């Protein structure tokens, strides 16, 4: 019969597995097409990232058709963004995958595209999104819409580099008193950072700012984590050698649900994780066979610090404590009574990478800890390292 704590854990793991599955499916949403003759056509719209095109249908009973950019002036979602047709200089080469451009220069090709209106004011901000590419544009007053130039490319030696001309453009055209040139190093090519730049510029110029995109300043993020843990545990009987045992590099599965609260500055966060891990191993002493078995529910709590490595990649480090909450861990002897191991609290340290704020990979180390409580007969030590892959589902 399964232990009671495992019965409680199964529904929890099933719940966040269901939550991590995309059940929304990028469905159609209500909106309006504005034709060249200014006639409004209501219906349902969906943006297809693979093709970079909008699909339109009058209702769910109609087959969707591709929106013809030559006949439509703008697209407006109900309670959402407006996309306006503009002819702009744009480079559509992908920023990820195997098809990176080998040219570091931003394309000079002028094309008609639908731009999402993110911010309006003295300075306005627009964005274009296609397959594996996102580009931003700015406009000051009634001037031309100019690209904020960013491009990822591959050198002949195979090294991936970034053209970050948009930093120079901000310095020359959009710099404000409360945005110093030193702070520009931390301005990433994202909605959040570029909206902040435009908002700051408009504030300096005493211009109102209408922000149409929802920016998540801070808040909670949820991740499903799956990995493996490798532990080393040793036991020394201070009276006789018949119970001495070492269990080195014992591996077992580890799974958990991580909750992270991201502070407004975004480089710092607090992290908690409900985890379940198990492992077992057998060895023999000079006297008998000895088995170590552990099935533990734990709660690691830590502080996390992020450092940017590029547009999509960030490095982070954790430091904190892990609390064993429940489960069972014991040392079973062939000839002696079994020895129950204590639930501990011990320091942890981790380092990992985060890609597009969606996937992360982390190595975490748990420091040495005594696993037998207040014993004059036994001496023990335990430490472990785990490798964990995580997926953010909310």
Describe the structure.
The chain has 3 helices and 22 strands. Strand 5 and strand 6 form a beta hairpin. It is elongated, with a radius of gyration of 28 Å. The protein has helices spanning 4-20, 165-174, 191-204, and strands spanning 29-35, 40-48, 53-57, 65-66, 72-77, 82-89, 110-120, 123-130, 133-140, 146-148, 151-154, 160-163, 210-211, 219-237, 245-262, 268-284, 289-308, 313-333, 339-340, 345-355, 359-369, 378-392. With 394 residues, the protein is mainly beta. Strands 1, 2, 3, 4, 5, 6, 7, 8, 9, 10 and 13 form an 11-stranded antiparallel β-sheet that branches. It has an 8-stranded antiparallel beta barrel with strand order 14-15-16-17-18-20-21-22. It folds into 3 domains: 27-80, SH3 type barrels, CATH 2.30.30; 90-215, no CATH class; 218-392, Porin, CATH 2.40.160.
Keywords:
394 residues, mainly beta, SH3 type barrels, Porin, 3 domains, eleven-stranded antiparallel sheet, 3 helices, 22 strands, 10% helix, 54% strand
Note the gap between the termini: 34 Å
CATH fold description of the largest domain: Porin
Major sheet: size, sense and barrel closure? 11 strands, antiparallel
Number of strands: 22
Average residue-wise pLDDT: 83
Radius of gyration: 28 Å
Strand content: over 45%
């Amino acid at each position: 019969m399964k232990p009671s704590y495992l019965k409680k854990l199964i529904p929890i793991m099933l719940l966040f597995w269901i939550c991590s599955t995309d059940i929304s499916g990028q469905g159609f949403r209500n909106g309006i097409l504005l034709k060249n003759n200014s006639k409004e056509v209501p219906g349902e719209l969906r943006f297809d990232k693979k093709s970079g095109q909008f699909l339109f249908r009058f209702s769910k009973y109609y087959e969707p058709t591709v929106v013809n950019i030559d006949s439509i002036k703008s697209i407006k979602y109900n309670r959402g963004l407006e996309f306006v047709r503009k002819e702009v200089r744009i480079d559509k080469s992908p920023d990820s995958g195997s098809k990176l451009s080998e040219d570091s220069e931003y394309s000079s090709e002028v094309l008609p595209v639908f731009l999402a209106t993110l911010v309006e004011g003295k300075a306005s901000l627009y964005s274009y999104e296609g397959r594996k590419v996102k580009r931003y544009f700015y406009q000051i007053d009634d001037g031309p819409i100019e690209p904020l130039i960013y491009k990822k490319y591959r050198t002949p030696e195979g090294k991936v580099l970034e053209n970050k001309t948009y930093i120079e453009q901000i310095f020359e055209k959009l710099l404000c008193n409360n945005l110093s040139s030193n702070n520009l190093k931390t301005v990433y090519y994202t909605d959040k950072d570029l909206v902040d730049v435009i908002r700051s510029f408009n504030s300096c110029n005493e211009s109102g700012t209408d922000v149409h995109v929802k920016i998540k300043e801070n808040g909670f993020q949820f991740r499903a984590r799956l990995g493996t843990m490798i532990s080393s545990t040793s036991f020394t009987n201070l009276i006789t050698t018949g119970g001495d045992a070492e269990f080195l590099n014992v591996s077992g599965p580890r799974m958990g649900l991580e909750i992270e609260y991201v502070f407004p500055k975004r480089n710092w966060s607090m992290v908690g994780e409900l985890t379940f891990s198990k492992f077992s191993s057998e060895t023999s002493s000079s006297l008998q066979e000895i088995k170590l078995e552990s099935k533990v529910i734990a709660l690691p709590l830590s502080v996390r610090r992020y450092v940017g490595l590029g547009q999509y990649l960030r490095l982070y480090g954790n430091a904190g404590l892990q609390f064993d909450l429940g489960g069972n861990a014991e040392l079973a002897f062939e000839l002696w009574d079994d020895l129950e191991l204590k639930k501990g609290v011990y320091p942890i340290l981790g380092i990992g990478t985060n890609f597009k704020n969606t996937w992360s990979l982390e190595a975490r180390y748990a420091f040495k800890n005594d696993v037998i409580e207040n014993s004059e007969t036994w001496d023990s030590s335990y430490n472990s390292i785990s490798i964990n892959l995580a997926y953010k589902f909310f």
